[in-house]
Design brief:
Structural class: alpha+beta
Number of helices: 4
Helix content: 10-25%
Oligomer: single chain
Shape: flat
Strand order of the largest sheet: 1-2-4-3
Strand content: 25-35%
Largest sheet: 4 strands, antiparallel
Number of strands: 4
Length: 175
């Protein structure tokens, strides 16, 4: 029954009420598939890759930034590469998840970015995408990095310090 002071309040709807939970199963099973790739084989694949990059340095409010993309094509065996044609899908799936392969692709993209920027670059932010194309497996890497100022000659020259006494070995006293 609604309170007499508010005629617009509706009575509470009666729900299903409390329900007991079922006990958790004692055991559960699932099947998983594990894949393993050799870092040496990834190196072979990436050394045989076709690499194409584009990018440029832009002035941003926080300083200069490099933005670019690198396309890495790992050709199929039928196209003169090392990726077996019949294993394209599994290799692409593994390449997208394997940290060794992703690191190799990112290093290639970083090197390409360093070549195209006007000065040394800092930490690289990269996004990777992997797809199977007609000629092989394509890895696309989008790169973003801060461009550092060109080091001047004064920064690397050794500093001369004025000392009044000659330096001695540690623990020895000058006489």
């Amino acid at each position: 029954m609604p309170p007499s002071y508010d005629p617009f309040v509706k009575p509470r709807a009666r729900g299903p009420g409390l329900k007991k939970t079922h006990a958790l199963p004692l055991l559960s099973a699932r099947k998983i598939e594990l894949w393993q790739a050799s870092d040496y084989r990834w190196r072979e694949l990436f050394e045989a890759a076709d690499v194409m990059s584009e990018g440029a340095t832009r002035d941003e409010p926080d300083g200069k930034m490099y933005y670019g993309s690198t396309s890495i094509l790992l050709p199929f065996s039928s196209r003169g590469g090392l990726v077996p044609d019949d294993q394209a899908e599994p290799v692409a799936r593994l390449l997208a998840r394997d940290p060794h392969a992703r690191l190799r692709a990112t290093r290639i993209a970083r090197l390409e970015a360093q070549v195209r920027s006007a000065a040394p670059i800092g930490r690289v932010r990269a996004e990777l995408g992997v797809s199977v194309v007609a000629h092989g497996i394509q890895v696309g890497v989008e790169v973003e990095a801060r461009v550092h100022k060109e080091p001047s000659l004064h920064e690397h020259a050794p500093r001369k310090t004025a000392t009044s006494a000659p330096r001695t070995k540690r623990g020895a006293h000058a006489s």
